[in-house]
């Protein structure tokens, strides 16, 4: 399986930081933004408690200083099923953006 070499990642709408923390664990230099101050405070406490480096968080206005190249919102299905055996459906958002110099 081909893997992406660690680099810089921006997690927009990071919430509790699950994806930002995972990317950091995999060696990425992560910037995590959310518009919810409680989410940012919780993630900041976790980063401090675990003495993590290479991960920054901030309360931000989304997309400032970024060129949005592509944005999609699609309904997708997980591999997991519910109690009735139906595949679980969620709405997924993906964003490809480039940092403005």
Structural domain tally: 2
Average pLDDT, all residues = 86
The major β-sheet equals: 3 strands, parallel
Q: Looking across the biggest beta sheet, what order are the strands in?
A: 1-2-3
Distance, first to last CA? 33 Å
Which parts are unreliable, with pLDDT below 50 for 5 consecutive residues or more? none
The quaternary structure here is single chain
Reading the helices and strands in chain order gives EHEHEEE
Helix content: 10-25%
Structural class, by secondary structure, is alpha/beta
Fraction of residues in β-strands: 35-45%
Shape: globular
Number of helices: 2
Written overview of the protein:
The protein has 101 residues and is an alpha/beta fold. It has 2 domains: 52 residues, no CATH class; 32 residues, no CATH class. It contains 2 helices and 5 strands, in the order E-H-E-H-E-E-E. A 3-stranded parallel β-sheet has the order 1-2-3, with helices on one face. It is globular. The mean pLDDT is 86.
